[in-house]
């Protein structure tokens, strides 16, 4: 993917707006969750990927009380 940089100013609360063009290119919709991390002198923002709260699996997820649980962990919980 081609790298592009845009300079934005933080508002009084420390927020920044991610330009709509960048969000479209990365398939990040309004109200989607993003993961924010720091690495050396960089702040990294990427689209959050749903995963099981217990094992981290990203497949066969079931929503339970606003958390994701994979079918395997759900089966273990039922025992």
Protein architecture, described:
The protein has two domains: 48 residues, Ribbon (Pemi-like Protein 1, Chain: D), CATH 2.10.260; 30 residues, no CATH class. It is α+β, with helices and mostly antiparallel strands. The mean pLDDT is 92. The strands form two sheets. Strands 1-2 form a two-stranded antiparallel sheet. The chain has a two-stranded antiparallel sheet with strand order 3-4. The protein has two helices and four strands. The longest helix is centred in the last third of the chain and has 8 residues.
- Kindly estimate the percentage of residues that lie in beta strands according to DSSP: 25-35%
Annotated CATH architecture of the largest domain: Ribbon
Question: What is the approximate shape?
Answer: elongated
Strand order of the main beta sheet, please? 1-2
What would CATH call the class of the largest domain?
Mainly Beta
**How far apart, in Å, are the first and last alpha carbons?**
46 Å
Label this structure with key terms.
79 residues, alpha+beta, Pemi-like Protein 1, Chain: D, two-stranded antiparallel sheet, two-stranded antiparallel ribbon, 18% helix, elongated
Helices and strands, with pairings:
Layout: H1 20-25, E1 34-39, E2 42-47, E3 61-64, E4 67-70, H2 71-78
Antiparallel strand pairs: 1-2, 3-4
């Amino acid at each position: 993917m081609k790298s592009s940089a845009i300079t934005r100013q933080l508002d009084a609360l420390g927020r920044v707006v991610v330009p709509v063009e960048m969000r479209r290119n990365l398939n990040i919709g309004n109200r989607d969750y993003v993961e924010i991390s720091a690495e050396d002198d960089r702040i990294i923002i990427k689209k959050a990927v749903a995963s099981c709260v217990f094992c981290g699996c990203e497949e066969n997820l079931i929503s339970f009380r606003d958390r994701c649980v994979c079918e395997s962990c759900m089966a273990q919980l039922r025992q």
